Amino acid sequence: MASLKLEDKVILVTGGNRGIGAAIVALLQELGSKVAYTYRSNCDAQQGALAIQADVTDKAAMEAVAEQVEEKLGPIYGVVANAGITSDNFFPKLTTEDWDAVIDTNLKGVYNTLTPVIPKMYERTEGSVVCISSISGERGNLGQTNYAASKAAVIGFAKSLAREAARYGVRINAVSPGFIETDMVKSVPDKVKERIVSEIPFRRFGKPEEVAWAVAFLLSPVASSYITGEVLRVNGAHYT
Ligand code: NDP
User: Fold this and answer.
1) Which atom of ligand 1 is nearest to the CA of 15?
2) Which own/partner contact pairs does 200-205 have at CB distance under 8 Å and 24+ positions apart?
3) Which of 89, 176, 202, 216 could bridge 236 with an S-S bond, Cβ 3.0-4.6 Å?
4) In CATH, what number is assigned to the domain containing residue 209?
């Protein structure tokens, strides 16, 4: 039977305790991977996965995460840089704190997650990384100058690292979700939600599981073996 060949692969997911990250952890477990995930504050246990409390903005903590995962589960094959936040406001009201928090988490957090892992992947000439970007980073969004900048930067980061990593047999891709039903969009007022849904050809928000399948495809050493530096949109044709 055909398979994504992710069985027994060690995969680290940041922000795996809820939302899109939790769906990714659950799917990878179903696919037979050995999964570790990080959470910042609230660990809703994901059965069978290794949960580690670590803030992606803390470089030393992320180094310790990589060490712990390799010690407990084995060499890391895959990383899903998923942890992210919003701190929205129209630009004149956006504070330096809003700016720094979002850039530190969504962009520097990806850097902190990957620096301890990438050299080891190069040594082993194997690995697949998926960074979670956003539709906001591709087309911009009201009140999200900070968030959109961080998510656009993640695409530039992934494309550049993909070019460097190819010679080592390591692939780096991004998934760019549209509006997905998680806590992150819960705070959007109903009227705004209705307007957004009316702009989406599928006339609904996406589900975390629909993002998880795209991530699994890009992690797979067989399904996406010739794909790197790519951005896979999961947005119901909201932006094409
Ligand atoms: P949620 O708000 O539901 O979950 C965010 C996750 O990130 C949580 O697990 C949270 O951990 C973790 N996290 C946040 N900050 C940190 C930090 N400093 N260190 C470690 N972990 C952290 O978000 P979603 O599931 O919706 O989003 C997941 C990713 O997908 C994000 O990168 C987001 O930008 C992106 N995305 C989401 C879209 C959507 O519509 N939902 C659309 C496009 C992209 P804790 O619970 O402990 O705080």
Assistant:
1) 9
2) 200/235, 200/236, 200/237, 200/238, 201/236, 201/237, 201/238, 202/236, 202/237, 204/236, 205/178, 205/179, 205/180, 205/181
3) 202
4) 3.40.50.720
Helix (H, G, I), strand (E, B) or coil at 162: helix
Of 77, 122, 147, 239, which one is the catalytic site residue?
A: 147
Helix H or strand E encompassing 63? helix 59-72
* Residue range of the domain that includes 180: 10-234
Query: What residue owns the CA closest to ligand 1's atom 22?
Result: 83
- Could you report the per-residue pLDDT of 55-114, keeping only the tens digit for each? 999 999 999 999 999 999 999 999 999 999 999 999 999 999 999 999 999 999 999 999
Ligand 1 contact via 103 beta carbon (within 6 Å):
no
Q: Are strands 34-39 and 50-53 parallel, antiparallel or unpaired?
A: parallel
**What strand order describes the sheet that includes 231-234?**
50-53, 34-39, 10-13, 76-81, 127-132, 170-177, 231-234
pTM, two decimals, is: 0.98
Q: Is 147 a catalytic residue?
A: yes
Total domains in the fold of the chain: 1
**Are 62 and 3 contacting, i.e. CB atoms less than 8 angstroms apart?**
no
| 240 in any annotated domain | no
DSSP state letters, 75-93: SEEEEEE---------GGG
Q: Which of 212, 194, 214, 213 is nearest to 204 (CA)?
A: 194
